[in-house]
Design goal:
The protein is about 60% helix and about 5% strand. By secondary structure, it is mostly helical.
């Protein structure tokens, strides 16, 4: 019916929170559940759960720290960490680093959320295996839904949600 994709539906949030709670237990037992313990598929699944734990800032922050420690040993993916780092920054109301997070701009086009140091962006993206920004923008716009009819209201609701779950004060 598409109902799960209009805002952050409570059923979707419940699934994400339950998965996040299980992942937090995994962190307590083994740290980052890397490739050496779960294989590529298991480590990828852990990242997807973490990336969608958006109502659990403490779990996302902890997971990013664990991922960053695991990358030098080849147990986590630098590109995944870039996506998560950007997501955390955007939710906290800061500029992202790698340009992976998008939102609709004032013209109704899906565009990268505010990104720091644009002059060095392509180099940072390449360092973690991301394609050029122009390719990503084209791909995101080609598969995006139309912009919300009331973008200002959507932003108000997003900011209220970010405060409610603890991303912002």
């Amino acid at each position: 019916s598409g109902v799960l994709f209009k805002g952050y539906h409570p059923e979707m949030e419940a699934v994400h929170n339950a998965n996040a709670d299980l992942l937090a237990q995994v962190f307590d037992v083994m740290g980052w559940p890397g490739r050496h313990r779960l294989g590529d598929d298991g480590a990828a699944a852990a990242f997807i759960i973490l990336q969608h734990a958006i109502a659990r800032p403490e779990i996302q922050r902890r997971g990013l720290s664990l991922m960053l420690d695991a990358i030098p040993q080849g147990q986590a993916n630098a590109m995944d960490a870039a996506y998560l780092s950007d997501r955390i920054a955007v939710y906290e109301g800061r500029e992202q680093t790698f340009g992976t997070q998008f939102d609709w701009d004032a013209n109704g086009q899906l565009s990268p959320a505010p990104t720091r140091d644009l002059a060095d962006l392509e180099e940072r993206r390449a360092s973690v295996g991301l394609p050029p920004m122009s390719d990503t923008v084209a791909e995101m716009r080609a598969r995006s839904e139309p912009a919300p009819t009331d973008l200002a209201q959507r932003r108000v609701e997003f900011d209220a949600w970010a405060c409610r779950v603890g991303w912002r004060a």
